[in-house]
C-alpha cells in the first residue's frame, strides 16, 4: 500500500483534468490550474513546459488507463463465447455509468480535440486503436473459427463497430436513457445481421 501523498506533478494533472473536463482546453488557463492546486503559475513550468504538453501528457495517461480497463474487461470475458466477447467490447464503449474522469476526458478529446493538437493526438490515438483492434479481431476470428461470423469481413466489421459506438457516444449527450438503449440494441443487432452467420444471428436480441 502506498501512503505517499501525491506529487506536485500529479496534483497538477488532477486539477488540469477536472478543469479541462468542465471548461475545455480553451476555457482553461495555467493560472486556473495553478489556483486549483494552490501554487503559483510559474511553478507549473518545473513539471510541464506548456499547457499543450500538459494536455498531451494527460491524454497519454488516460489512454493507458483506458487500455488497462479494456484488457481487464477482456480477461473477465475469457470464458464467454465470441459473440458475447464482441458484445462486451461494444458495451464498454457505449456505456458511461462507470467511466472515470480520465475515461470521460479521453472520449471527449476523441470527439473534439483542440484543433492545433489534432496531429499529435492522432498519432497517440492510432497507437491506442491498433491495440484495441487486435483484441476485437481476436474475438471476431474466434467467432469465424466457431462458425458465428462470416470470414473476409474484418475491415467492414471494425469500421461499423467504431461508427456505431462513436455515434452512440454522441447520442448519449442528447437522448434519454430509454431511447439510447433502444438505439444501442438496434446498432448491435445491425452488426450481427451484417457479419454473423445464421448461427451467430441466433443471438440477435
From TrEMBL:
DNA-binding region of this protein: 29-48
InterPro entries the UniProt entry points to: Homeodomain-like_sf, HTH-type_TetR-like_transc_reg, HTH_TetR, Tet_transcr_reg_TetR-rel_C_sf
SUPFAM superfamilies documented for this protein: Homeodomain-like (SSF46689), Tetracyclin repressor-like, C-terminal domain (SSF48498)
UniProt domain HTH tetR-type: residue ranges: 6-66
Protein name per Swiss-Prot or TrEMBL: TetR/AcrR family transcriptional regulator
UniProt-listed Gene3D superfamilies: Homeodomain-like, Tetracycline Repressor, domain 2
Keywords: DNA-binding, Transcription, Transcription regulation
Pfam families listed in its UniProt record: TetR_N (PF00440)
